[in-house]
């Protein structure tokens, strides 16, 4: 059983902390110019963070207890291929989901 | 005229983000179910989702609390999962930094993976857009997401374990992220950054508190920046 006081400390602490992380540059740097070297790194934030977030989930899914799963690997590959080639997010998601559903049905 | 442009930016954001509603619904429901399983009441689950609005960090905190980890460890681990938000904040600053402080605070609170990824692709594609147009797009792209995150947390908490969370549903979030990455891979530097970050994420997965994610992301960003710097030096 989770203790009530602790729970609310975590909820509020995590809320304040998460807001601080989201606000730190946007709020404090604002419209001051950042050095070109920093800007150059920032342009690659999305394409670095998102793959790093996803990759371990694709290779070692929690649902299979960390065992690599051909259906999930296939679904990820199809989604990436369509998203890159067609640049169409919904179609890529539907194709990935279709592979999963087909795999579950097999 | 300007307001018409801003309005259409807002609605473009809404349209672009609509597919993610389908992903947020099961994810939020799952959080509600897991939190009610852990003994949280509806108000507590909703409070969690409103205060934090970050799925991965919420699941991490809940799991650690169930394992009776010390409060400081719970906070530190869950915040480490959210450190990527500081990277998003930095990356959004050149685009939204000119807004008044209160709008920047609103944008900060509403910075999520999905609308961040959509917005950054849109801002880089449509460079002529005004700051207010960009802010409108940003708000538009969070509209089909945040309310559903709150709402379906409540649904999950109310129905509890009545919903079967079986095969494949765990993979909705990875699929959505992969689909978002695709359109952003529009240069060799972007593709190499993604590749390095992916491989590094697998190599550093053993690191505690999700630090592997940050190391991998840092390496990816350094790779992209270095390729760009060399290309400029040659030009």
UniProtKB/TrEMBL annotation, chain A:
Highest taxon of source: Bacteria
InterPro entries: Brnchd-chn_aa_trnsp_AzlD
Protein's name according to its UniProt entry: Branched-subunit amino acid transport protein
Keywords: Membrane, Transmembrane, Transmembrane helix
Transmembrane segments: 6-29, 41-60, 80-105
Organism (species): Salipiger aestuarii
UniProtKB/TrEMBL annotation, chain B:
Keyword ATP-binding: no
Transmembrane regions listed in the UniProt entry: 17-34, 46-65, 135-159, 171-189, 195-220
Membrane topology designation: Multi-pass membrane protein
Compartments, as annotated in UniProt: Cell membrane
Secretion signal, residue range per the UniProt entry: none
Similarity remark: Belongs to the AzlC family.
Protein name: Putative branched-subunit amino acid permease
